[in-house]
Structure prediction request, 215 residues.
Amino acid sequence: MFAIRLYPILLLVISLSGCTSVYYDTMEKVGIHKRDILVDRVESARDAQTDAQEQFQSALDQFASVVQLEDSDLKRAYESLNDEYEACESSAASVSGRIEKVETVAEDLFEEWQAELDLYQNQSLKASSAKQLRQTRGRYKEMLASMKRAEKTMQPVLNTLQDNVLYLKHNLNAQAIGSLRGEFRNLQADIATLVKRMNQSIERSNTFIRDMKAS
Prediction:
């Protein structure tokens, strides 16, 4: 988010230290709290999902071009499709990594929030804060569940891409292309499902971000 990205050197030093508590304490000293970090990481996860959508679609487009090639183009076709598969694999790993970071800071935020409820002397303020905690945690769980559903759709697509890349690698002939044509429709349907679930997850993320910034 905004302020967090103004401190790249600070973030690097803290991350190298490997201490989460030092990270949080240091960020709070410059006015950046766990809720700010959570919003930033949700935004990063959302952006990673958008990038993954584009990469998987690119792979599908490349696959479509491969099944139309002549024999003389097969080696080039394999290299291109393999590049797309590796890029998709990298994008999928990025999405999973971003989601893990969201979970880490969310757990820390909610744990701190829950513990600090016991510090209130004013019962009305305590009840109000507890209500906000329940609502925020509920919105977060819905968003995370949507992220997880989208994440799960990536691996079957990666498996299909990998199988077909390997098949093409070891069968650089016209018969291989004929077999791949049959796989294309299945892959097309799988990626359509992936994109749909990614869109749902991205929308959930945008809603969560808006609510966190407004509260």
